[in-house]
Amino acid sequence: MARQIARWSKQYQASETEQQPAMGALIEWLPLRLPPEEAPRIVHGDYRMDNLVFHKTEPRVIGVLDWELSTIGNPLADFAYHVMSWRVTPELFRGLAGVDFARLGIPTEEEYVAAYCRYTGRDSIADWNFYMVYSLFRLAAIMQGIAKRAIEGTAASDEAEELGRLARPVGEQAWALARSLGVNDRATRR
Question: In this structure, are residues 76 and 37 in contact, taking their beta carbons and an 8 Å threshold?
Answer without folding.
Answer: no
